[in-house]
Amino acid sequence: RRVHGESQFRKVSAAIMIRPGSALSRAKTKAKTNANVAGPAKKAEVKKPQLHDFIANRDWTGAITLLEFDKRSGEDRANLMLWLGYCAFHNGDYKKAIDVFDEMLISGEGGPELHVYKACCLYALTQYKEAEVEALKGKESPLQNRLLFHLAHKINDDGPEGKLMVYHSKITESTEDQLCLAAIHYLRSHFQEATDIYKRLLLENRDFLALNVYVALCYYKLDYYDVSLEILAVFLASQPNSVTAVNLKACNHYQLYNGKAAEAELKVLQNAATAANIFNDNDLLRHNLVVFRNGENALQILPPLLDVIPEARLNLVIYYLRNDEVQEAYNLIKDLEPTIPREYILKGVVHAAYGQRQESREHLKLAQQLFQLIGASVSECDTIPGRQCMASCFFLLRQFDDVLVYLKSIRTYFQNDDDFNWNFGLTSASAGEYKEAEEALLLVQNERYKAEYCYVSWLSRCYIMNNKPGMAWEAYLRMDTTNESFSLLQLIANDCYKMGQFYYAVKAFDVLERLDPDPEYWEGKRGAAVGVFQQVVASRESKERLQEVVGLLRNTNNPQVEYIIRVIKKWAKDNGVKIQ
Predict the structure, then answer these.
(1) Can you give the pTM of this predicted structure?
(2) Average per-residue pLDDT in the chain?
(3) Which residues does 188 contact at the CB level (< 8 Å), separation at least 6?
């Protein structure tokens, strides 16, 4: 059920994202310290910060501040505006970068490559159509081709004659182009192909440490969480405060352990940050905290990120499903074209829930097909999600014996999972295995689940089939008087009658008859009363029950009542049983 986002090169934010901390705060601290050390007779010399120092330290806020100061003071710096646009882009302030490039285009400063730079900013703002138009205004270059390649993927222009293949054919063996190609493989869920490229580049460029993060990310997507952590450690040794790397480490811990363990890994970033709260400045971290905290603040954080982080949509769908808001979940996922198993599975779950809610055979059929597609696939058939999918497929086809084959093969992994025990209990009961069904249903701990009529009715049926009708009757007595309690009475009456548990059958039919004077209820009550009498005669039922049966019969105004009571009384008198 848990799906979350962790990819740096999958994240393109439409919001302005300011990186925490700046060289200005550090410079002030350093200047203050130097002043205290210097003697009072000599004024400390203030040295102007250098742009290349800011950029080397990736302190984009400090670099922008310096460049804007130089611009206002008329400082003669080569390519000042280009540097300003570059730093704004890397700071995540894409709108500011666009303003800079627009100013340069209007003033005639710079060449047609500015259109490509501006297009990169529009891409980061998820304005893909506008980015394509702007990129095509620039001159042909490797950067333009790489950008158009990614835009073709985003716009889904990937048919046999589509632009994706055209731009793909222009990809060279340069490091930049190969990184671009690997990113496309990753985005299209071809994680092994992406891994192969990253590994090759890493062998050729041992000092490109960030490639370790990309390889670790691919292994994460391939569910090799331990391997991902091992590779990630190489990069974290040199960059322990990298947001992307620490976030990926947290995601691995989430998959291996739980949300608390994952969140604990993120404390490194908060401790290292100079800003008050780094999580407010990073969409990816805010998104993942929602997942780590089991949906906390989902409605506030996830909706603005739907077009920024792909997993945000999936996680919001999961949130809606968990809160029984099936319509909202359906609206969010109905137009999604799944590309990876988790997306197929989640779409199947939504269609199954929506189909049950709307009593739509069309949606249930689509859910069954989605589950079958994943469960029968070569890559997923022997995985736990794959077997769950096949179980769901057969459940919707009402082939319960086949469902049990798959559920029993993975039961040891879900001993304390309420959803699994619910499904296993219902399936076992539907297949006639009532003892196992009762055991599974009693393992369910969720009070909301246990209050549902579906749960109460199936558990009551299991009690009756396992010769515990008294417990089914107690379940009825705990219910308020509603249509559901009336339905449960019908179930108890008919199932108890069928199982020869006539004492509880006559009690149930008596209540039904008083609630609804249907002749069928009298017939059931009459047959059950005679059944109790027959069992008493055969010494299979307590004689004391006859007095209660006679009282129940007298609740009915029917000529047959006196005849049945007369027969019972005569037998009772002959056998020393006292009946009032």
Answers:
(1) 0.73
(2) 88
(3) 153, 339
